[in-house]
Amino acid sequence: MYGFRKPFTVAEYDGTMVGSIDFKTIVVSIQVLGYMLSKFIGIKIISEMPPKRRAIALLGLILFAEAALALFGILPRPWNAIGLFFNGLCLGMVFGLVLGFLEGRRLTEALVAGLCTSFILADGVTKSVGAWLLANGVREDWMPFTAGLIFLLPLCVCVGMLTRIPAPSEQDIAARSARETMTPHDRWSLFSRYALGLSVLVGIYLLITIIRSIRADFAAELWGDLGQQAAPSIFTRSEMWVAMGVMFVNGLSIYVRNNRLAFFLSLGICALGFVIVAVALIGQQTQSMGAFQFMVLIGFGLYLPYVAIHTTVFERLLAMTRERGNLGFLMYLADAFGYLGYVVIMFSRNLFAGRENFLDFFTTVCWIALAASLLALFIASLYFANHGRQPATASAVAERV
């Protein structure tokens, strides 16, 4: 999926300006706007999607996304940005569909850690493909469509493989609870019972999403401001180290069988990630850390909590409370507001700032987000310590047995 979403971000679009705003900032913002709207739509669609329809929905969304990239190549600038809006609108629901194949299992954390690792690595790999296409003479406006063609056949093969995954076993259901499609009443009931705690977790995810997205979408600018040329291979090399570290730490959660303990350990992993980001920022600002080390360390620190929320926080919340629901609903609730925050940040920057040093902008946002996230994490820990216990009902006891 990242082969259809990310390659365009490696282009600089010849320094094209639309008024006082550079064209790249516009296209990144427009695609994220579509992606964000897709997340809000996905709260309903993903939580209600029957398992038998996931594969065909995946393929349909990808094909529409590739058609939107063709529109980006055909239309003149800046009107071709509309193609990236529809591209983001299609791709925003892909992750939730894939997640539906993997949740509610004793190995869910390892499986989703692998899935998240694939998109961390894919962020770098697909940018390297985009940079390689540009270096070989493909025009900037047609490069995203061309990159999508390269990834189309492998994606179809992988969707076919997903359909071969068996349903969760009885042992999986006993350990993690059954995951069912949700009605509007189910969604409201689950949220209202844990409204404060879920809102705080969504707030943390929102802040992480903002920083992670800035780092991902403006990686070339950040490398430049750090004084290092963004060669095609550097995107892959930096994200490979990030991906391996994040997969190792978050994947270990499968060895913690107690759902409540695993939930709070995952909050601890989030806190560790924030500390690592602070160390990276201090190292860069004191010039005691090189560009490559800074980008790897800050990526590792950001993706630790980002992936922990994907793999463990919501998965074990459902498992320890035995509430009716699915991971897709909780993730899309968080994703929707996460990308809404990123859209607000990007458009605010467009309105009130010029083409300033992107590293300074990124550092400022990081420090603000870190302080707010640590406070929110403390509140969430206190809340779920008192509200996250499994109800001692006859049905809950029967499920445990």
From TrEMBL:
Q: Which InterPro entries match?
A: DUF5690, MFS_trans_sf
Arranged from A to Z, the UniProt key words for this protein are: Membrane, Transmembrane, Transmembrane helix
Which Pfam families does this chain map to?
DUF5690
Asked if the record carries the keyword ATP-binding, the reply is no
State which residue ranges cross the membrane: 23-43, 55-75, 81-102, 111-135, 147-167, 188-214, 234-256, 263-283, 289-309, 329-349, 361-385
Q: Does the keyword Transmembrane apply?
A: yes
The name this protein goes by in its record: Major Facilitator Superfamily protein
The taxonomic lineage of its organism, from the top, reads: Bacteria, Pseudomonadati, Planctomycetota, Planctomycetia, Pirellulales
